[in-house]
Predict the 3D structure of the following.
Amino acid sequence: MSEQAKAAKDLRQAGELLELLLDDRPGDVRLAWEALAGRRTPAAAIRRAAGRLPPELREALVAQVDGAGRER
């Protein structure tokens, strides 16, 4: 399997997992974001990765975590 194909598969699997978590455990997604939001490097990496998600999934993620961690 090429690196590009593996990367596409990994992104698809991550998206499927995130979609499931947003549906079944949205509070846990928000808590995880709050835990990482104060740490620049992990938060930046997550934002970059989220930019590669399908638009509707990215919008659902943003809606769930919008404002989370800003109070730090």
Q: What stands out?
A: The helical segments are 3-24, 26-37, 40-50, 55-65. The radius of gyration is 13 Å. The chain has a mean pLDDT of 87.
